[in-house]
Amino acid sequence: MAEMLRMEGISKQFGTFFANHDVNLDIQEGEVHTLLGENGAGKSTLMNVLIGLYQPTAGKILWRGKEERISSPARAVELGIGMVHQHFMLIEAMTGFENIILGSKVNPSFTIQESKDKKKIQELMDRYGLEVDLDVPVGEMSIGMQQRVEILKVLYRGAELLILDEPTAVLTDQEVEGLFDIMRSLTSEGKSVIFISHKMREVTKISDRVTVLRAGESVETLKMSETNGQELSDLMIGHRFVESVYDKVVAADKPMLELKGVSYHPNEKHGGLKDVTLTVNAGEVLGVAGIDGNGQSQLAALIAGLIAPEEGEVWRNGQRVSIYSPDDFIENGLADIPEDRNKMGLVGDMTVAQNLILKETTSDKFSYGHGLWLKTGAIQEYANEKKQENDIRCTSVNQTVRSLSGGNQQKVILARELEGNPPILIAVYPTRGLDIGATNFIHDRVIAARDGGCAVILISADFDEVLKLSDRIVVLFEGQVMGEYPGVNPPIDQISLAMAGK
Amino acid sequence: MATEATAQAPKAPKVNKFGVFQRDKIISIIVPIVSIFLAFVVGGIVVLCLGKNPIEGYGYLFSGALGNAGRVAQSLQSACPLIFTALAVSFAYKCGVFNLGGEGQFILGACATMFVLETTGVEGVPGILLGILVGIIAGGLWGLLPGVMKITRGLNELITTIMLNYVATLLMNFMYSKVLHDPDSGNLQTMAVADSVVLPKIDRLHIGVIIAILMAVAVWYVIYKTSFGFKIRAVGINPTAAKVAGFPVKRLVLLSFVISGAIAGFGGSVDLLGRQYRLMTGFGSGFGFSGVAIALIAQLNPIGSMAVALFFGMLTTGASSMQVGIGVPSAILDIIRALIIIFAVAGMAMMKLPTFKNLLNRRPMDQEGLMPPTDTKGDDGSSLKPEVSE
């Protein structure tokens, strides 16, 4: 195998901070090379250097043995480097075909030569098994197909090296298999893939070699055949990683939250709920598994009181809910770890302290006269206490919450929501985008809340997370509950099938 | 971008109690001051180009504005309406509402005061109180209108508030040309308000100025010290999170429209009863937009708005002295005012540039758990990932 790319001693400095420090990476022709690392380990920076968005502070890049300065993304494309971003860069109103040719210089003709271009795209599709409906607007495609459009887009531009940034995050198990097939057919033709993922199961399955990054430095490059998941995890976090294991409980039949035949926009496959019935008892975790975009957001919004069901009833602590407003739900003991922490959970430009007391500003503890004068001192003191308790890492509680890392932001939300032992907790994708350490911390806290008698409903697209935490599991598919399964020895194959609607 | 270092960069080993957070505050005070200085320098160059001596000119400007007690009083009184309109803008903007209708609300407040005093004929202190109350209500209602349109129909308040300014101006026109037209005057104006409802004066200074200053303190208190203000600010920064946190977002937005309008209407009443005494062509003209500029220069801080408004009032009063003194058009002062705005806005934008922040953050990042500069945040999925364009 010939060497395709070599990045030598790459450093990227921001101010005095090194996002990458002396990183080495080499890619052979025809391999799947995984880039593994926690958040902030420097994966994105390294890739941004490679595709010409950043100029490295030091180090050099050799492309097929020749030193190159990748001065712009356009230059990277010229060389044959293409990136499929985690968040797709597609225009939803345009068709697959239009998205693929958009902005490309492959066909220099002034007019769009549709049949000629399509023929070329069709060839690529046949060659690599990329099945795409070219004439359908991207917005109407499944996520998997959108991803294939993205891959076609970079192949059409002549990419030899494809960078796939967390490509499996949004896919079903079957779609992941399909993607892996595509990756294999790409590498068999001598193209190479840089695969970025957190999911160890997938990494061990598809990689030829793995480069581990930690704190901006490349720790080691290993052949997958000579290593295993445990070793990679240890390398990634820098010490032996011990994952917590939680006991499963069978809670007493004390329903805290019940949904009875609830529907919301029932005809929408990816944004509705259809006749959903489920119960969460005090002192248990009900896990809602399913692929992203099967009604999870609506279920979460409904339980938080943000939307009202069109049909069906919601019962809370034995009483039927009549008012659907977040205010009322919070009043009745709902704690909410929302789906999007920056957008829904935190007021980014306010301080850590202010975010910690966000819902409590009229309480006697933090103000005189029900909010007429805020007690700055008491707020500070409380915030510092919570900072200690929850290991929120910040220089000061008067720092804007925006400047914290994702894991610490989530800890702020958790600290706020779990204050005063709420009877009901809804956690939606609570560890999305967090590193292993923060994930473990969040899991510990959720389980501690459960053990304290809280009824927890966990909605997550991370199947492993659902399996790890849930005492009971339901599967959501196209807005419907596909079945209920025990948390102890869950029938994994059955649940996987249910997640795909079978 | 993370604010991870202290102002006292190389020396300080630890972030002290104030540290980096204090630094941002200091910057926000320094920027307007430097902007004013630069504006005067550039304005001086313009004066030089006209062949006059800028130093001498500025001498006349300041002596004209502050030379004796009477001039100081006049400066303060010119500032008074600007304080109100600037506070109106600041308050609304804190809730994410861009109220450009300060002028209309100001005018309508004055119209309502005039109308109620002329029609009821209430005199003395009750007349003043009644007039001001009606002015506040009218301003509030004029603010409520665009608020309702925004909340129920999603109409952009930038447009509706400006449009309502014209409506208010024409309503006032109708007042002074028809309804309350002064028959003894050939000009288009109303009769003057009765002497007994003119705001009391301390020496030559009407008490409206004191009311304006108290108002600034009150707005500061509400925004920064109460739970209500806290919620208003939260809604202004992130309405979605505020909604999830159980805040009545729509009600708060609507209230901020009303309060903002009420403040401006209050200003209109005060200016009518304290300084102008009658409605006429040009009453309140430009105050709304001056208010916007002042609030932005002061970075929406109520106390800062008051300070900047006082300065603008001074410029207005000193302008004619400068004109007479060295024979340059008083429009020079308009140029300076505009330059202040440009420099202040540019200055604040510059402070947000990554290169500039890096200059300030010269200390190595040694605090655990802090975000590295935004660019590495990609793993979180939260930072922007530019498209690979060709």
Task: Describe the protein's topology.
The complex is a heterodimer of chains A (502) and B (390).
Chain A: E1 3-14, E2 17-28, E3 32-36, H1 43-50, E4 58-63, E5 66-68, H2 73-79, E6 81-84, H3 96-101, H4 114-128, H5 143-156, E7 161-165, H6 173-188, E8 192-196, H7 200-206, E9 209-214, E10 217-223, H8 229-237, E11 255-264, E12 273-281, E13 285-289, H9 296-303, E14 311-316, E15 319-320, H10 326-331, E16 334-337, H11 341-345, H12 352-356, E17 367-368, E18 373-374, H13 376-390, H14 406-418, E19 424-428, H15 436-451, E20 455-459, H16 463-469, E21 472-477, E22 480-486, H17 492-499
Parallel strand pairs in A: 3-8, 3-9, 6-7, 7-8, 13-20, 13-21, 16-19, 19-20
Antiparallel strand pairs in A: 1-2, 1-4, 4-5, 9-10, 11-12, 11-14, 14-15, 17-18, 21-22
Helix pairs in contact in A: 13-14, 14-15
Chain B: H1 19-49, H2 54-66, H3 69-94, H4 102-120, H5 124-153, H6 157-179, E1 201-202, E2 205-206, H7 208-225, H8 227-237, H9 239-244, H10 249-276, H11 287-297, H12 302-326, H13 331-351, H14 354-360
Antiparallel strand pairs in B: 1-2
Helix pairs in contact in B: 1-2, 1-13, 2-3, 2-12, 3-7, 3-10, 3-11, 3-12, 4-5, 4-6, 4-10, 4-11, 5-6, 5-10, 7-8, 7-12, 11-12, 11-13, 12-13
Protein name (chain A): ABC transporter ATP-binding protein
Domain ABC transporter (chain A): 5-240, 257-500
GO molecular function (chain A): ATP binding
Quick tags:
heterodimer, A: 502 residues, alpha/beta, six-stranded mixed beta sheet, globular, B: 390 residues, mainly alpha, two-stranded antiparallel sheet, 14 helices, 69% helix, disordered C terminus
* Main sheet makeup of chain A: 6 strands, mixed
Q: What share of residues are in beta strands of chain A?
A: 25-35%
> Count the strands of chain B?
2
Structural class of chain A: alpha/beta
The H-and-E topology of chain B, N to C, reads as HHHHHHEEHHHHHHHH
**Which bin fits the share of residues in helices of chain B?**
55-70%
Mean pLDDT of chain A: 89
Order of strands, main sheet of chain B, comes to: 1-2
Low-pLDDT sequence parts of chain B: 1-18, 363-390
